[in-house]
Design brief:
Strand content: 25-35%
Organism: Natronoglycomyces albus
Largest sheet: 3 strands, antiparallel
Number of domains: 1
Protein name: MmyB-like transcription regulator ligand binding domain-containing protein
Radius of gyration: 18 Å
Number of strands: 3
Distance between the termini: 52 Å
Length: 67
Amino acid sequence: MRKRIIHPRLGPVEVQCLILHVPDSDIRIVAYVTEAGSSSRAAIDSLHTSTQTAKASNGAAQKREDL
């Protein structure tokens, strides 16, 4: 099932909703994935990259404060 999610920073992101059923239980795992090579995948990847860059910058600033 395809869905459109409106992300506050990225705007609309197209995802596919996968529902995995755990055998012999009422548990379901819901995963939202983007299509490889799509603009939605690029947007999610850029969000991940900017988060990692921010964490690295914060870590470097913390190290300078420790000196």
